[in-house]
């Protein structure tokens, strides 16, 4: 410390002072303070990323979204001078380019990414994930701004193994089902299977970003999340979202558990998935943000291959964990089977497995997930029960209006 400050007790200095002094990247270089334009900041991933950035760095956030419910606690906190909310629909708002120009880095999280929407709203899904993302890529490229774009593990579509006979030994060979960023093919169902509208739109925007990097020098990183789950994921129908809405699997099963209803297994719940805790995944994103030299030009799988289960096994685990955290006995018939057509509508199709290869992110950023599936479910369902149990009971008890 300079002589004039040498007699001061360290507790006289704000936390930000020590954060600034201590932060270096993976190569030992000081990390400069950034202004980050985060599109979709009010969503599940955005809210957790905002928390992490505000609590552990000095970076500033230009938070862009239509809703701010999940980050309201941050906008009204002691961090409010470092996070500024802009209520913008990126479809048609001329202010977006100005915000991207003001920032050092743009993170695009905006998407329609709920399977129930792929069949019923395919046009909205394609527009949201491709057309609406085009100006973001264009503004970053034209203004020489770095872009971290969130894609999806769904770009891989179906595994090669899924086309082999059910008893074929090569189905068990990792070469035929482990998904690699730089070599696995992207295999989708037929055009009439509109479930793939999301994956196709995401794949095309990935190709466009990659082309902007190759032809115009855009600095980019593409993230492929593999089922990130945790608190604040999606909504509980009729409580903090539309009663007719169908959220993704974690919130869907949570809703059933809170209501004491059997969990619905689409086509028997035989699809296999891996699940990673949101807090682990956010650590990976932080490494991408603060290590551009290692992250630029790369596509990263971010998942946890150790947390692989069938959807049916996930339902069984969630039933057991929820009983533990709530103190309520599990219902006698915990699951029921429904057809994909009944649950999602005409045009649904699915992939058999989604197991990420972790070679590239481990090599470039040294990242590995830490949290077991049991632990992440216990943490998440504790939050779900604490947040929603009373509201769901009131919703169930509410008398139904009769004509």
Automatic annotation (TrEMBL):
Cited InterPro entries: Arna-like_SDR_e, Epimerase_deHydtase, Lipid_A_modif_metabolic_enz, NAD(P)-bd_dom_sf
Keyword check for NAD: yes
Signal peptide: 1-22
Domain NAD-dependent epimerase/dehydratase: from-to ranges: 36-303
Origin superkingdom: Eukaryota
Sorted UniProt keywords: NAD, Signal
Any one GO molecular function term: carboxy-lyase activity
Pfam families: Epimerase (PF01370)
Protein name: NAD-dependent epimerase/dehydratase domain-containing protein
Organism: Coptis chinensis
Source taxonomy: Eukaryota, Viridiplantae, Streptophyta, Embryophyta, Tracheophyta
